[in-house]
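Query form — protein Ig-like domain-containing protein

QUESTION: What is the three-dimensional structure of this chain?
INPUT:
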Amino acid sequence: MEGDSVTLNSGLTEMMDEDLILWKIWIENSLIIELNVTAKGIDVYDDHIYERFRDRLKLDNQTGSLTITSTTTEHAGLYVVEINIYSRSFFYLTVYARLPVPVISRDCSSASSSSSSYCSLVCSVVNVGHVTLSWYKGNSLLSRISVSDLSISLSLPLEVEYQDNNSYRCVLNNPISNQTQHLDITQLYSVHCCGSTEAVIRLVLSALVGVATVILLVYDIRSKRADQDHARIPSSQT
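ANSWER: The structure tokens for Ig-like domain-containing protein are given below.
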């Protein structure tokens, strides 16, 4: 996990004065450090690449094992240890970034329709790599998507029925950790309920406005007719 320390063992329990250990870190095919037990020294061969390891490398002078502290994803790669030139061991280091908590967004715009009984959901994460994103209903897997690239965004859709009593969750995981976001069904029902209520209110208001308009129009027509009839009646003579 990013930020943790890792120790790569040389395989020796104790080194002799004449032993020579070379640790090769295969990043851009460069040799980063060399430990000569007799000289008790560390030689750096590539200052540019060594910068990413600065203050993070610790070598055990008794065993020759290498420890990397405060690891980042930049430290992932192939490590080779050579003991007296004749013995060689390989290590492939994978450093996983710490996982964010997935975000569940919803599109319940269709909730205003009385015929709609489902809500569309999307579970998403950004800037992740070597992960799997999954939807679960209870303990049953519904859908899953995986990615092996670095720094990519993922999204996974799901449709849920309103008033569904099942428990849903979205899970983001890699081989060593996971993050889970649970879905609150009551929030979806609230959105559906409120959306329907709002639609009904709007419909009633529109109807009232229409009725009022008709009443005003009829009143106006009757008033004009009454005025015209009054104008046609001749005045009485004395």
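ADDITIONAL NOTE: The first strand starts at residue 6 and ends at 8.
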